Amino acid sequence: MLENLKGLRKSKGCTQAxxxxxxxxxxxxxxxxxYGQVDLPLSKTIALADYFGVSIDYLVGRTDNPDVxx
Length: 70
Prior knowledge:
Elements: H1 5-11, H2 16-23, H3 27-34, H4 42-52, H5 56-59
């Protein structure tokens, strides 16, 4: 589950439609991703983390630190 996805999306002023287009999925499918009803492939999880400039661990709720370890 992508715990912080909705908050990141709202903080960046993105719509569900925009992110569904970015991920190349339907808007309803994206909504299910955001609500944890559909698992996201790792490649798309990485793409979202890169899009928002956060770590995957932050995106999935494993840490409160959004910084990417380099």
